Amino acid sequence: MPSNKKHSWKHKHLLDVDSLASTEYKSIFSLAEKYNKLLNNKKMIKKTLSNVNIFNLFYEPSTRTRASFELAGKLLGANVINIASNISATQKGESLINTIKTINAMHSDIIILRHEDSGAAYLASQNTDKSVINAGDGSHAHPTQALTDSYTLLRKFKSLKNIKITMVGDIKHSRVARSNILLLTKLGAKITLCGPKVLIPKSFSTDNKSRSKEFSFKNINIEHDLDKAIKNADVIMALRMQTERQHSKNIPSLKEYAKKYQITNRHLHSINKNCLLMHPGPVNEGVEISKEVAESSLSQIEEQVSNGVAVRMAILELIYLNN
Ligand code: CP
User: For labeling, which of 18, 19, 64, 106 is most exposed (least CB within 10 Å)?
Assistant: First the structure.
């Protein structure tokens, strides 16, 4: 298979963003931009993945990630097969590894996996000779969402150096937060984490020496007071309360959380007038943000979803053409 020489890609799998070289994520952004333009102008898209078989294997609910990977694959000419665990042989006791082996035997080329267990995509990648893309594993990583979010911001700011981004919500259980922190700090952004103490791991405030040089938890502040945390922000990223992963009671109730941490119209008057509001979705209106804020002109939520298609097209193509 000829490689796409204009773009750099060295990995067989996409399991998280921390293994990516800057040339690789820049390749994703530049290819995504090409596809975004073609999609927005309804131009013809070359079927670079014709005869490629992509399996979407989802053990957790998803709207955005699953549908955008399916659309991305189909737009590039691939065959896309969707397997949802609630109606698959998982219900008859088949393990993840045996399901991967089964898909492996069905002429698959790329396996896209979402799973409730952190590390599931890594396990899958060790049990197949196909490329695995992590579509979200437990509270660990969601690389394609982080790449989508950085791409969305780069389209607005050109460079993220010293851009102030405040993430508000359940940082502890959020795979989106973790992958976004890794990538956004690498791109030069300054991150403030805001939320109840029990939902922000202390490890995020330290310069963790165990990480690679390219990715470290530098440039991170923690501020539990919402008004202070968002006052000078260029971007507010609201995150969903991950109630499905909160096995012990971390907060008294969602109502109590909303009283202190919901972004509402009141906050729109005290933040930078050009501040952008992001949310990876799904949004629980009335908990992390109000309906008015979600629908305000600051909101990038729908743009994040649209950009997710182009970013996933870029990822599929780079992985397939370079393996
Ligand atoms: N952001 C995100 O992962 O959304 P879905 O769960 O709908 O895929």
Answer: 106
* Distance from the alpha carbon of residue 62 to the mean position of ligand 1, in angstroms: 5
22 lines ligand 1 (CB under 6 A): no
> Quick check: CB of 148 below 6 Å from ligand 1?
no
Q: Report if residue 6 sits inside a domain.
A: no
**Domain assignment present for 2:** no
Residues 218 and 114 in one domain: no
Nearest-CA residue for ligand 1 atom 3 is 65
Domain of 204, in residue numbers: 143-301
Q: What is the pTM of this model?
A: 0.93
Whether residue 196 is preceded by a cis peptide bond, meaning omega within 30 degrees of 0, is no
Kindly state if the Cβ of 280 falls inside 6 Å of ligand 1: yes
> Is the distance from CB of 110 to CB of 79 less than 8 angstroms?
no
Strands 235-238 and 164-168: parallel
Does 275 fall in a domain?
yes
Same-domain pairing of 316 and 264: no
